[in-house]
């Protein structure tokens, strides 16, 4: 893949230019992947988000103790 990098004045890369043909391949792959996700997987993720929001609300009300971020990240 022939990538072009854009850098700021200090030489730090700030962007990448991808040839349009490569972009179309990436986009096509992504769309196929998104369309292949089963509804049950989407429901599982949404249920997890709902549970997380409920836990946050319980923490705000003082009914549940908050946990360190490291513990939360380890669950992922």
In words, what does this structure look like?
There is one protein chain. By secondary structure, this protein is mainly alpha-helical. The chain has two domains: 1-36; 38-76, no CATH class. The protein contains three helices and two strands; from the N terminus they run ββααα. It has helices at 20-36, 39-60, 69-75, and strands at residues 4-7, 13-17. A two-stranded antiparallel sheet has the order 1-2. A hairpin with a 5-residue loop joins β1 (4-7) and β2. The longest helix has 22 residues, at 39-60. The protein is flat and about 55 Å long. The relative contact order is 0.07.
Average pLDDT confidence is 87
N- to C-terminal distance: 32 Å
Structural class: mainly alpha
Major β-sheet annotation: 2 strands, antiparallel
Number of strands: 2
Q: Which regions are unreliable across 5 or more consecutive residues at pLDDT < 50?
A: none
Number of domains: 2
Number of helices: 3
Into which percent range does the helicity of residues fall? 55-70%
- Strands side by side in the biggest sheet: 1-2
Share of β-strand residues: 5-15%
Radius of gyration: 21 Å
**What would the principal axes of the Cα set say about the shape?**
flat
User: From N to C, what is the helix and strand string?
Assistant: EEHHH
Quick structural overview:
This protein is mainly alpha-helical and 76 residues long.
Please name the defining characteristics of this protein.
76 residues, single chain, mainly alpha, 61% helix, two-stranded antiparallel sheet
């Amino acid at each position: 893949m022939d990538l072009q990098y854009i850098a700021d004045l200090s030489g730090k890369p700030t962007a990448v230019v991808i040839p349009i043909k490569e972009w179309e391949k990436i986009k096509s792959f992504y769309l196929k992947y998104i369309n292949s996700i089963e509804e049950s997987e989407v429901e599982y993720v949404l249920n997890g988000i709902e549970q997380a929001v409920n836990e946050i609300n319980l923490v705000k009300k003082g009914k549940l103790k908050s946990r360190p971020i490291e513990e939360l990240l380890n669950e992922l």
